[in-house]
Structures are given as C-alpha cells and as structure tokens.
Amino acid sequence: MKKYLFILFTASTAIATYAQSEPKFQKIDSVLTYFTTNDKFMGSVTIREKDKIVFEKAYGYADLENKVKANVDTKYKIGSITKMFTSSIIFQLIEEKKLTLDTKLAEYYPQIKNADSISIKNLLNHSSGIYNFTNDSLFMDYVETPQTRKAMLQRITDYGSVFNPNEKADYSNSNYLLLGYIIEDITNKRYKDVVNERIIKKLKLKNTYYYGKINPKRNEAYSYSLDGDSWLKREEWHESVTFAAGALQSTPTDLTKFIRALFEGDIIKKESLEEMKTMDFGYGKGVFIFPFGERRFYGHNGGIEGFSSVLGYYPKDELSIAMTVNGEGYDSNQILIGVLSSYYKVPYRLPNLKTAQVTQETLKSYEGTYASPTIPLKITIKLVGDQLTAQATGQGAFPLNPLSDTEFNFEPAGIIISFKENGFAIHQGGTVNEFTKE
Hints:
It comes from Flavobacterium arcticum. By secondary structure, the chain is α+β, with helices and mostly antiparallel strands. It is 28% helix and 26% strand. The protein has a nine-stranded antiparallel β-sheet with strand order 17-16-15-14-22-21-20-19-18.
C-alpha cells in the first residue's frame, strides 16, 4: 500500500519449471541466487515473452519458521498492483455505460469535500486532492483490525482535501478505496467477487485472489523484514483496510498473464487502454511508466507489510516481467535492475554485500562536516541510530555500509569512503578526492 516509485536508471532456491538454459537466463538466476544466499532477497520472478514464459523461479522461503521453501505457485500479497485490477474494472463499467470518466464523486459520496468537482478520472490518476489515509500517523493503530466501509469513509471525509481537483496529482490510496466502493455500488456485489468474475475467472488465473489471514497450507507466503542478521515475520494487515487499493495476492506468473491480456485487449478495449496509459502530472489511470535505459515499461508496484512487488510491460518487445518479494534485505529496485540488465545484456556488476561489525564508539568518532579543496561541496557524516550516513551539500543523505572499521561503501552509487585521522578519501568512478574534517 505504500507508494514505491520504481525509477530504473541505466542459499535456498526453489523449483524452476523451465530449463532456462540460455546464458541470459542463467545470469538472471545467478543474480537472484547471489542476493538470496547473502540473505538479501526472498521472492519470485517471472518473465514472459508474448504468451510464452521464458523464466520462472522462486527463491527463499514462504514460511521461514517451518523451513517451507517457496515455489512458483507460492502466493504473495501484491499491494498496490491491485490498483491495476481496480482500474481495469472501472474501465469495463465505463464501456458498459454505467459511469463515465467525468462522473462526479458526489453521485456516490457527496459528503467528501469537493465531491461535486472530483471525477472518476481524478480518482484514477490521483488528481483528486483527497488525503491519503495511509499517511495518517494513526494508520498503523488500526491496520490489523477489521474496518467497516462506514468507518473508512468517515476517515476519508474527516481528512478533507490537500489540494483542489486537477490542480496537481499526489498518490493517495483513498482514491482507490473509493473506486472499490463505487464498483460495489454499481454491481451490487462484493469487490472481491467482481474481480473474480470479471478478471480472474476470465483469464483463468489460478493463483490470484483477495487475501485473508495468511494460510501456509494454501501455499501463501508470510513476509519478513531484515533485523540485523535475522529475518523477522511481519504483522498482517486486515484486508478491509487495504481493499481495492491493495488487497489482492498473486504470483508473478499470474501477474504477467494479466498484464499481457490487458495490453492485448482481452480485459478492456484498446481505446480504454490508451486512456489508462495517458499520463497526467506523471500518473496514468492505474499505471505508471518506469524507464530502463531507453525502454519505457507500463505497470505498477506495491508494498504491504514486508512484501514488495513490481509488474511491468514493454509493448515494443511484448515483454512482461513481475517480481514479488516477501523478504527485502536490499533495495528491490536495484535487484530488478540486475534482472533487466541480465536480460538485455547490459553490463551489470554484482554489489558488494559484505558488512562488518563496527562499534558505536568508532562510528561516532567519524561524525562531523568534511571539506575538500577539489570539490565545492561539503559532506556531513552523521550517526543515525546505529547507521552511519553521509550527506553532501544540497543533496539527500545516504547510508554507509561498513566493510571494515575504516572503510564504508554506498553500493548503488559505487562510492567507497576510507576514513583516516581527521579526514577521509572518497572513491567513485575511478576518481579519488580527499576530505578533511572541519
């Protein structure tokens, strides 16, 4: 349910059902195995070329406590990828003339601020101005508890708006909660039944459904967060809270089948798909664009509990890719870059995942502001909790991973910092610059 924008810039594995003998697929497997064996990744990946699955494999555990390995049919909660299903159903209802993109929210929920100005389109592309209920500091207080529609609507009503409709766009799970309620109002059926009838059964998706309490006997994965060197099982969010904004679970194989069908016109008409893909303020209507080099993928990503996921489609190559994660010990965006780099034969270097144990006293001694005669930027080193961070003037802070008592790195940017008395040397891109503590 959290918003994760995937912006792609340039030892226990489970059963694989395909030979995947091509070198590029072997490399993908080696990348994912590397992260898995270093306790940085548990999850599943599927790649589909047109209607043919060319890579399909699961890594790590569905149930770590009982040592149950994941397989390609293990279900993972997909969070906000659910929004693609919700948007597809809204477009089906538009095609059936049961509402329009210009239909106003006031026809259903006039009590919400600006309802007479907020359209279905505004809800779809996050330009409604309605406050995102998951941003509320009290959200985690009730996330595990069943919620009624009345209670959720009252919260959304009480929050009011953060900007006027069509003024700009800002991601809000509230929009898709409302779209789910509207779907139920129009069809007189439960949201989960509508999804099942209109998409799941139609496409014969065998492992996609509205989630409930995790049941390992149904091959449903638990999610985990990395705490130091240990995986800790995460809490379960009640489905009534996430609803049409994030309450589906699935597999990468089902997800790639879904997005392929969507782009082939098997779920909504081509005209509707074009409208869904149209970007306003950087948002489509249930989809984002995320680039990999010169390629532009359409899709969505999701985060809920300890799960994260991404689903993308590159129309030119008719390529679908999905990754579901139930144990994220490394930025999943960077892992996906490794997968796509391997697929497209783009040079990719495996990150250094080595981590050393450094005392708080040593970390604390590095705190301070450092300047260099060769770079017109100062770098501030700060200890946040037990994590050493670096921040250059005018830039965001980034974490430093200890390789030894004196050497630290930030792998995504290829940075290595070597501390010495009253200063450090920073290595990046073949250059070295010396900094001195002020």
